């Protein structure tokens, strides 16, 4: 019963807040609490202390990350542009408004982080003020730190 219950006649009798045949399922919903105070951000169910996201677009420990939503790239485009290239709408306010992520410059698009890493990752292709394309990735790690990789 993995320490969460007592075995009686080869059947686990679980302590409060645990269930399952081996008492391996926690009924504690604290790990599923999103930053907005909702269980699984209102986009999933909390099963055994883990979010099961019901909306397939969303993922992450509390169903807050969306890789395919347009928002992530568009939302950070101006800050990435001013931090990486010192131009764009936020050029003059960059140091005040755009220091909320760690930034790494990479030589080419194939040097950008690829899907398959543990942190949800968004690949972005945006146009700059000179009508040129620039490429970056945006991810948030388990500590809540945002990381941006930009092609030089």
UniProtKB/TrEMBL annotation:
GO terms for molecular function: C-X3-C chemokine binding; collagen binding involved in cell-matrix adhesion; fibronectin binding; integrin binding; laminin binding; protein kinase binding. It comes from the Eukaryota. The gene is Itgb1_1. The lineage of its organism: Eukaryota, Metazoa, Chordata, Craniata, Vertebrata. Coiled coil: none annotated. The keyword Repeat applies. InterPro entries: EGF_extracell, Integrin_bsu, Integrin_bsu_tail, Integrin_bsu_tail_dom_sf, Integrin_I-EGF_CS. SMART domains: Integrin_B_tail. Residues 73-152 form the Integrin beta subunit tail domain. Transmembrane segments: none annotated. Keywords: Disulfide bond, EGF-like domain, Glycoprotein, Membrane, Repeat, Signal, Transmembrane, Transmembrane helix. One of its GO terms (cellular component) is synapse. This is ITB1 protein. GO terms for biological process: cell adhesion mediated by integrin; cell migration; cell-cell adhesion; integrin-mediated signaling pathway. Pfam families: EGF_2, Integrin_B_tail.
């Amino acid at each position: 019963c993995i320490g969460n219950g007592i075995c009686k006649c080869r059947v686990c009798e679980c302590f409060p807040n645990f269930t399952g045949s081996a008492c391996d399922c926690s009924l504690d919903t604290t790990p599923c609490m999103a930053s907005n105070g909702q269980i699984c951000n209102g986009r999933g169910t909390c099963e055994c202390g883990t979010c099961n996201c019901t909306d397939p677009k969303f993922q992450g420990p509390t169903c807050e990350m969306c890789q395919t939503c347009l928002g992530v790239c568009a939302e950070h485009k101006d800050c990435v542009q001013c931090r990486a290239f010192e131009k764009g709408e936020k050029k003059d306010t960059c140091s005040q408004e755009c220091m909320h992520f760690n930034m790494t410059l990479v030589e080419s698009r194939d040097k950008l982080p690829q899907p398959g890493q543990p942190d949800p990752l968004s690949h972005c292709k945006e146009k700059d003020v000179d009508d040129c394309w620039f490429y970056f990735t945006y991810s948030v790690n388990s500590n809540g730190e945002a990381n941006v990789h930009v092609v030089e």
